[in-house]
Amino acid sequence: MTDEVILLNFWPSMFGVRTMIALKEKGVKYEYREENLFNGKSPLLLEMNPIYKKIPVLIHNGKPVCESIIQVQYIDQVWSDKNQLLSSDPYQRAQAFFWADFIDKKLYVCGRKTWATKGEELEEAKKEFIEILKTLQSELGDKPYFGGDKFGFLDIALVGYYSWLPAYQKYGNFSIEPECSKLMAWGKRCMERESVAKSLPDSEKVVGFVLQLKKLYGIE
């Protein structure tokens, strides 16, 4: 029996990218369905994620799996015969989940503030954003990837933000490279992987998308 795998996603999402990368790393064929959230939510999205009504939604043989971090974990367990993304060591797994949770709680909200706020709030957001990246850079250390020599779960959790960094810097008017050169080098290293390069949206396209959002919300 062939698995039927469908991904409901909206192209700029740094969360849906995670699921796409994980599927590609495992060599799983899937059908991609674009959810243009500007045009409303499809009946399928509302049916498959009635609680949050959000993308991405992974549908595997008719059953929905919601939330990108859970999806990556699910993909790693279901297609466990190839390219393990999470360590088999319980402590290493716990650490990976801790840092993925840190990314989701801190980076998204702070990143949004770099283009959606002004004045003192923007200045605070820029400082906090750099501090968050420096914390993650410290966790990376001198390793090529967060899990060591092998691209894995935590790299997938973070790399979706890489194509958003130019937009954050442009609209927030700040530079990440001076204080986070190791992390930026990690991002470039990840982009050399086909699974990442083919999943991440073009950063210039993201810059244009954020401009659309600014106009939509009346942020000048």
UniProtKB/TrEMBL annotation:
One of its GO terms (biological process) is glutathione metabolic process. It is found in: Cytoplasm, Cytosol. CDD domains: GST_C_Tau, GST_N_Tau. Residues 89-209 form the GST C-terminal domain. Keywords: Cytoplasm, Detoxification, Transferase. GO terms for cellular component: cytosol. GO terms for molecular function: glutathione transferase activity. Its main location: cytoplasm. It catalyses: RX + glutathione = an S-substituted glutathione + a halide anion + H(+). Its EC number is 2.5.1.18. The keyword Transferase applies. It comes from the Eukaryota. InterPro entries: Glutathione-S-Trfase_C-like, Glutathione-S-Trfase_C_sf, Glutathione_S-Trfase, Glutathione_S-Trfase_N, GST_C, GST_C_Tau, Omega/Tau-like, Thioredoxin-like_sf. Residues 3-83 form the GST N-terminal domain. Transmembrane segments: none annotated. Signal peptide: none annotated. Pfam families: GST_C, GST_N. Belongs to the GST superfamily. Tau family. This is glutathione transferase. It comes from Arabis nemorensis.
